Amino acid sequence: MGAKYMNKIAIFLANGVEEIEALTVVDLVRRAGIEIDMVSITEERQIISSHKVVIIADKIIEELNFDEVDMIVLPGGMPGTTNLEACEVLMKQVDAFYQAGKYISAICAAPSILGHRGMLQGRNACSFPEHESQLEGAIVTRNEVEVSDFITTSRGMGCSIPFGLAIVERFKGKEAAEELSKKIVFQQV
Q1: Average pLDDT of span 166-184
Q2: Residue 87's closest CA among 101, 72, 102, 100?
Q3: Do 167 and 25 form a contact (C-beta atoms < 8 A)?
Q4: ∠ CA 163-26-57 to the nearest 5 degrees?
Q5: CB of 119 closer than 8 Å to CB of 149
Q6: What's the pTM value of the predicted model, to 2 decimals?
Q7: Domain boundaries in the chain?
Q8: Cα(37)–Cα(10) distance, rounded to whole angstroms?
Q9: 136 near 121, Cβ under 8 Å?
Q10: Is the CATH number of domain 3-111+160-175 3.40.50.880?
Q11: pLDDT per residue over 44-76, tens digit each?
Q12: Could you tell me where the beta strands, DSSP code E, fall in 41-150?
């Protein structure tokens, strides 16, 4: 799938989501001119984050046409990650994206979902340290972000900007991600 054909991301929000991980991705990809829908997996658009921040999603999962989505993003947080994994509609789509080789990105605890589903076998992957044992079959690293074919993983809230920039790079290329990095005054050491 070439970058020129990619045009839409869906990021999934559950009660207990880590708000910085979710909203940093939304902010960065929108700054880059990429369309992203914040999608509630509940029947309500309002989500309460893990730190009691109210987030209003763009739509609920039943309103999303997955055929129009080029990337699924799973933010972490607890119990947000557990709630995402318990959503059968979402997990069916994660499986379909994996089978089709479509882009899947997960940060913090959420890469454990991919591990549980056997999607990280032989891939470099990273997650929040307490969840590394759940990255079944992965070559676990401590890098901020790992990009392995069509799967991107990241470690946690402190890695939200590099994670978001990696997603921008998938859609717009390295130069666009570097330019955005400068615009937000983000300097990697």
Answers
A1: 96
A2: 72
A3: yes
A4: 135
A5: no
A6: 0.95
A7: 3-111+160-175
A8: 5
A9: yes
A10: yes
A11: 999 999 999 999 999 999 999 999 999 999 999
A12: 46-48, 54-56, 59-60, 71-74, 103-107, 124-125, 139-140, 145-148
